[in-house]
Amino acid sequence: MWRRRLGALLLRSPPSSSSAAASSCQHHRHHLLPSEEPLALNRLARLFTSQAGSDGGNSQKPFIAFVLGGPGSGKGTQCTKIASDFGFAHLSAGDLLRHEIASGSEKGELILDIIKEGRIVPSEITVELIRKAMETSSANKVLIDGFPRCEENRITFERIVGREPDIVVFFDCPEDEMVKRLLGRNQGRVDDNIETIKKRLKVFESLNIPVVDYYSSRGKVCKINATGTADEIFEAVRKLFSSLRF
Ligand SMILES: Nc1ncnc2c1ncn2[C@@H]1O[C@H](COP(=O)(O)OP(=O)(O)O)[C@@H](O)[C@H]1O
Ligand SMILES: Nc1ccn([C@H]2C[C@H](O)[C@@H](COP(=O)(O)OP(=O)(O)O)O2)c(=O)n1
Ligand SMILES: [Mg+2]
To answer: Which is nearest to 208 in space by CA: 76, 137, 118?
Structure first.
């Protein structure tokens, strides 16, 4: 109930104009006086405490953070840093799909065709890969990077894994910056060309933003300003993760 009330509060607050790397959970900050901030962050941390945490609940359940943002917003870069500093397992939906392609399976061929066109792979395939990776990992805190990409992804995950995330980290980055980063990524990816990038950006706006809106309404989204250097952005990320109890 309180989560829903918090979500409504978040939705009502106007967007923040805070500077780079200083914007973790900026929706909440909008309501705060500077001196209130640490206390409020602690309160927020308790709200985001894992179902596996100190609540005496089911200790088998890992803390799950979905990591969202447009293509090139820096999800992978920041997840690597979070994994290293906070001991999270890092599951990248895109990497799992690319591994399937590399395996040479029939499913991999289908995935390749879809990724080349900047479209989204059928949810059952992606969720099954994520579910298996989670099962294999013994980590009690997991970053799921680049997922859910659409409402169908989200609903399928909830159905198959039977869970919602504890938190959703959203990297907010202007389109021109994302395009610049993708064109400079140089990893030989079939989808990092301007034609496919344009399609991916459209898909992001039309299918992924509704997922962010959904989780905002559930009070689960922490938005990070993803402009600036990777280290500057990680300062905001570090602040956020330091305030969580998992
Ligand atoms: N803050 C940043 N400033 C400039 N380039 C960045 C930044 N963060 C990441 N990059 C680079 O941009 C590209 C896309 O980053 P990546 O982490 O792969 O994003 P995503 O997983 O969201 O697509 C990579 O080449 C990465 O090295
Ligand atoms: N949940 C997902 C994640 C990725 N995909 C597909 C479609 C995406 O354009 C590609 C690449 O995803 P990836 O997360 O690696 O891409 P970015 O890190 O955002 O550049 O994979 C998908 O269909 N469903
Ligand atoms: Mg990525």
So the answer is: 118
